[in-house]
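Re: the pair you flagged

First of the two:
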Amino acid sequence: MAEPSRRGGEGKAAHLVLLGLPGAGKSTVGPIVARALGHLFVDLDAEIERREGRAVAAIFQESGEAEFRRLEGRLTAELLAPDQPPIVLAPGGGWVEDPANRAWLRDGVMSVYIRVTPEVALARMGEAAATRPLLAGGQAAEKLDRILGRREALYLQSQHTVSADSMTPDQVASSIVALASSEFAD
């Protein structure tokens, strides 16, 4: 496996990882940021679904969360490897809980926490919240509060935080692009 420590050209970051709760807007904002930076965009969950030929919910149900997290870690190592083209990566909200994934957030990878309240995240997800494996089965607001309680300290280890409760996706993307401009400068 590749080492999770490297830099882009002349000490600059090579990749950008967007972190935050489900519903924070990572998959919405990511493509906008990627276009502005001239990077590729990868929604990690969507790429896992494409490669596995089944939905994340099906992977959780049929193979368990541990198998999903293994797939997530293996794909992260592949995508953030030093020989890969620069990407904007939008992993699922739980990605940050794995220490091996967080190890990739060192040299060569800029991280941004898109911070939203659980209420805003749920509103953004709408009915799709019921399809999220960790939120399914009712009481999504309480579950998301517990998830944030468990993950926020990890999210806050990001290099940057963008508080996005009252921002549009374009505003969030503009903020992230502004933060990244010096990281990705040639």
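Second of the two:
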Amino acid sequence: MADQYYPPVGFHFAVTFELPGVGAQDFRFQEVGGLNAEMEMEAVKEGGNNRFTYQLPVRTKYEDITLKRGMVNGSPLVEWFRLAMDNFTFLPTNLMISLLNESHVPLQSWYVVNAIPKKLSVSNFNAGENSIVVETLVLSYQYFKAIIP
């Protein structure tokens, strides 16, 4: 009952890919970013009246999705990235990002359509720190749909 009165917390979430061979080790991320949509606008000047410029909607633009996690050896998800980066073979896939409540039930989900790898990076190595190696995966995609249960 309290869920309807308080904003949800952003630390309990799940990411699932519709890729063959991708298992539970590829669903765990420490950070997800980029669920942003923005309307591109076109400026149109009114004929005969120089005082007005109208902003008309053109199309929706979606920001890249960034996923961060501790490095996983033998990950099919990273192999999907390498197939794109090394062989220029792109296999678009869909994924679901879900914000979960304390019972692991989705409060809201975002269905991301036709995602492809855009960037794969590995964190710096530093002998003076005791930190895990972090993989950053960046995806480009067509659009997302919000799904509210």
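The first helix runs from residue 76 to 87.

-B.
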